[in-house]
Amino acid sequence: MSTPLYDALNSYAAKKTLRFHMPGHKGKFLPGPGLEALAAVDVTELPGTGNLYEAGEPFDSAQGLWAELFGFDHCQFLTGGSTMGIHTGLALCAQPGSKVLIDRACHRAVFHALALLDLEPVYLERTWRKEDNLIGPILPEDVKKKLDRNPDIKTVCITSPTYAGMLSDIREISHMVHAYGGKLFVDGAHGAHLFFLGNRLDWDVDALVVSAHKTLPAMGQSALLFTNWMEVDRVRQMASVYGSSSPSYPMMASLDTARQWLVEGGRFGYVRASKRVAQLRERFPSVRDGDSLDPCRFVLKVKDGPAFGGQLREQGIFPEMEDSGHVVFICTAQDNEEDFDRLEAVLETLEDGMGDCIPIPPPPLPKRVLSPRNALFAASRRRSLDQCEGEISACQIAPYPPGVPVVVPGEQIGKKELAYLREIGYNMQSEVRVIGGEPNGMGK
Length: 444
Ligand SMILES: Cc1ncc(COP(=O)(O)O)c(C=O)c1O
Fold this sequence. Notes:
Layout: H1 4-14, H2 36-39, H3 59-70, E1 74-78, H4 81-93, E2 99-103, H5 108-116, E3 120-124, E4 128-129, E5 134-135, H6 140-149, E6 155-159, H7 170-179, E7 183-187, E8 207-210, H8 212-215, E9 223-227, H9 232-242, H10 249-266, H11 268-283, E10 297-301, H12 305-314, E11 321-322, E12 326-330, H13 337-348, H14 372-377, E13 380-384, H15 415-423, E14 431-435
Parallel strand pairs: 2-3, 2-6, 6-7, 7-8
Antiparallel strand pairs: 1-9, 4-5, 8-9, 10-12, 11-12, 13-14
Helix pairs in contact: 1-10, 4-5, 4-9, 6-7
This protein binds pyridoxal-5'-phosphate (PLP).
The site of pyridoxal-5'-phosphate has 15 residues, from helix 4.
């Protein structure tokens, strides 16, 4: 067993020291049955337990084992999810104020990073898969066209896989970006487990973030940022800009133990899960696309997503999310045969609700009026979305999940955007922020 961080925490706990340091539970007491077991290893930076943002043990070994496994120069543990990894990764890959090529279907954290770093986005639109009512992969030739037209772009950011499990050809895209002298940052938040299904992730990208907590047996918010060709000290420094100075040790220890469990055989559970997903795809109308789809993501096609999701929950089955025409199930090594049998049995009772929904149009590309930064920090006021035609958004309008914005700060909320939001069932009475009003939302 090689779990350097977890071992260091246990060895400190075993010493039964008198703890006059943080956290306030002193290793003795966390109210609530089931939580108390965590207290002993929930420590702080001490001799022996190391510092996440500095060189030294046990982090060098614990992170080094992950880096070696995935074939990267360095792995940085993160306690703020892929959200923190996106901010850190983009700060490392892009010069503040520079022009960047951004997958339009990126998570909202990317759009926040654009504003904080004052980046100038050029958007990469995705193909629209009419047959599935879904966005498809990013095509390498589309990346090439944009880079040809914008030779000043030196940073590219792409999400792979998407929430629905759609994979892009990252190896090909990465060769192309490098040939243009750029850096590629990949948001692989949903794909940590792919490596354990034999999809190597060492695609020669500059940085890759994965949310360990989404698909691996690791604690909520734990994530991993992998980097190549970067000064490690700089990676740690940037991570510390976006992370807490008191990162959670149990969370980080769970990254350590998850890796060990996976390499000791846990990974075979993903192969088993992927076989059951393949059977579900055969049995029910679903998104299926051989090589470019995460084998563990089951995306069921339904006529009315919210209604279908409600029926599932009534029977005790909670999927990851639903939109108007799909229900997304995250499947992992922890879903055993009985779990899949139960899901299948319930789905058999709901077949009437399955099939193609009313066709969804591809998302529009709104007109940009202000830069993401100027819009995010501009004076703004709240307004009901259905009264916003012609207004300039000061916030992201993003159905969550998947958290992919339809309108981002600085873009105009036009007729077509409102029609699209209505069509996908967005709550048109919800309030959004638009440009105008008091600075920093001080007005009523
Ligand atoms: C594509 C994508 N990237 C990043 C994130 C943020 O990840 P986290 O929740 O680990 O911060 C999400 C969250 O759902 C996501 O879907």
